[in-house]
Amino acid sequence: MNRRWINLVFAGVIAAGPALAGVVVKGSDTVLPLSQKEAEVYLQKDKAASVAIIGGGSGVGLAALIDGTCDIAQSSRPIKSKETRQAKQKGVNPVETVVAKDALTVIVHPSNPVKKLTVQQIGDIFTGVITNWKDVGGPQKSIVVYSRESSSGTYAFFREHVLANKEYTSAALLAPATGAIVQSVSQTEGAIGYVGMAYLTPSVTALEVAAEAGKPYVPASTANALDGSYPISRELFYYTNGQPKGEAKAFIDFILSPEGQKLVEDVGYVPVKPGARS
């Protein structure tokens, strides 16, 4: 009988546990807490199964899928055309499955009186055009920018959809994992960062965001991500080599089941299957 386990890896550091076996899921730190929760419940149902859940960033997961060292790449962004070409060269056929949706949330220190920003203002902050909170209605205080590293799918999505493909400010402090951004922003007055909705804690304040000046400011929430009214909403993905099969298919099928989609909502993300919410 296979040993039942979840091997957790954060920022490349492997937790104690047996060698990798069964289904290996690797990649996005945004998707990480969702995969962990899904695997926990899945393993309770299938006592012969084994699942490894590994973080490191979307780019890391997709590279592992291309190299054949994982069964499922978890990603907070769509696969890039360059990655697809690399996969084809190695005989790998990446197939995409949307497992959840997310409201990418901009967070600040709780002491910050600024509670609302437009997408343009956020983009100007993260590209270094705006460097002081007084320029967006706040106090005379320098803005401390925290960002994920470039291997992160969240980094890429935020750059494309909020920064309009401009470069991040050279003053940005790069964090290896989403949890590190939450911790850093919670401890730094004047700080700003961005995280998946499931990472929100009372230690930080989530900003309301307007698509543009004159448009309504919308909080990040399940309902607002589901109906698209929150302007920084996105899909979360699993990628497999070809159509899912075997235990990988069984695990993905569980995530897309009504029970699995309810867990999506429990974790703090948005289900994608109609009728899954209860």
Topology:
Elements: E1 6-10, E2 13-14, E3 23-27, H1 32-45, E4 51-54, H2 58-67, E5 72-75, H3 81-89, E6 94-103, E7 105-108, E8 116-118, H4 119-127, E9 144-148, H5 153-161, E10 173-175, H6 178-187, E11 191-195, E12 205-206, E13 208-210, H7 222-226, E14 233-241, H8 246-256, H9 258-267
Parallel strand pairs: 1-4, 3-4, 3-5, 8-13, 9-10, 9-11
Antiparallel strand pairs: 1-2, 5-14, 6-14, 7-11, 7-12
Helix pairs in contact: 1-9, 8-9
The proportion of residues forming helix, as a percent range, comes to 25-40%
CATH superfamily of the largest domain: Periplasmic binding protein-like II
Radius of gyration: 19 Å
* Strands in their spatial order, largest beta sheet: 2-1-4-3-5-14-6
Descriptive notes:
The protein is globular. It contains nine helices and 14 strands. It folds into two domains: 6-101 and 236-267, D-Maltodextrin-Binding Protein, domain 2, CATH 3.40.190; 105-219, 3-Layer(aba) Sandwich (D-Maltodextrin-Binding Protein, domain 2), CATH 3.40.190.10. Residues 1-20 have low confidence and may be disordered. By secondary structure, it is an alpha/beta fold. The strands form three sheets. Strands 2-1-4-3-5-14-6 form a seven-stranded mixed β-sheet, with helices on both faces. A five-stranded mixed β-sheet has the order 10-9-11-7-12, sandwiched between helices. A two-stranded parallel sheet has the order 8-13. A hairpin with a 2-residue loop joins strand 1 (6-10) and strand 2.
